[in-house]
Amino acid sequence: MSDNVTPSSSLPPAGWYPDPQNSSAQRYWDGARWTEQVTAASGSPAPTAPHGSARPSQRTSTTMMPTGAVLATAKPGLRALRWWQWALIALGVLLLVAAIGGAISSGSDADDLAGADAPVAAVSTPTAEPVEEEPDTTVAVPEVGGKTIGEARALIEGAGFTLTADAGVGEDWIITSQGPTGGLKAELGTAVSVTAEAPKPVYSLEQQNALSQAQSYLDLTGFSRQGLIDQMSSEYGSGYPVDVATWAADTVGADWNAEAVESAQSYLNLTSFSRQGLFDQLTSAYGGQFTADEANHALAAVGY
């Protein structure tokens, strides 16, 4: 008959008994099962099993209750671990996991370095064929602004170009603009177009004074060409030589028809004239000395 068989009717009464899982503590037995209530062991020794009930060769231990009944049979094993023991175990596991992860990462980095050190196949680039450049046949156009037509013609044609200008331009006229602009390059034979103006005349001091005097007379009242010459050459007038007075009358740029109109209006403002009387006054050698055409133009302008 087995030593570990205990009838259910022999269960001990409720009370504190040695903890079957920790011999240094006591656990509360409610009469049917063990509870979660645990306390430190008292000074009284825990009941022990009868002599000979446990065999040394067996790997089980039997806890006997005071009544002699078998309460529980516990297999020997690991003792219950304290909280700090579990903390040390968790820390060890974390260190182990970190070490394994570092080893894996190191292996991956080594693979990357090995891949980086691997020689890369050179990519051959096709060599472009050299392009033969066409020779530059253009030539810089000479700058001729401010020069005479004659001077510019020599420079432009000497550089391999041709010069074009407006009709009637003299060789002594001064160039004011050109195209293409001086300094720009153009093909040989290109026509360089220029614009020019007549040179300013150079007058003697007497001519300058005579011209100024003639303009003053015209600003004062209406004069015919001959009347202006007589006024400037008269000893009672300006006293210029006849040739100088004539040159001044021809150079001042007067509109003789407009001068005749102005003179006719002055006569009418002075007194009343018939058409014929005004015509005679305008054409008389002692009057305006206008030509017949100029007098007729004036009569029409004033309403005759």
UniProtKB/TrEMBL annotation:
Q: Tell me yes or no: is Repeat among this UniProt entry's keywords.
A: no
Which Gene3D superfamilies does its entry note? 3.30.10.20, Winged helix-like DNA-binding domain superfamily/Winged helix DNA-binding domain
TM regions (residue ranges): 83-104
Q: Where is this region: Disordered?
A: 1-65
Q: Which UniProt keywords apply?
A: Lipoprotein, Membrane, Transmembrane, Transmembrane helix
Q: What is this protein identified as?
A: Ltp family lipoprotein
- Taken from the record, one Pfam family name reads DUF2510
Organism in which the protein naturally occurs: Microbacterium memoriense
* Domain DUF2510 as annotated: residue spans: 14-46
Record-annotated Putative host cell surface-exposed lipoprotein Ltp-like HTH region domain positions: 206-251, 255-300
* Segments of skewed composition (Polar residues): 1-11, 55-65
**InterPro entries named among the record's database cross-references:** DUF2510 (IPR018929), Ltp-like_HTH (IPR011434), PASTA_dom (IPR005543), WH-like_DNA-bd_sf (IPR036388)
Q: Bias category Low complexity: which stretches? A: 39-54
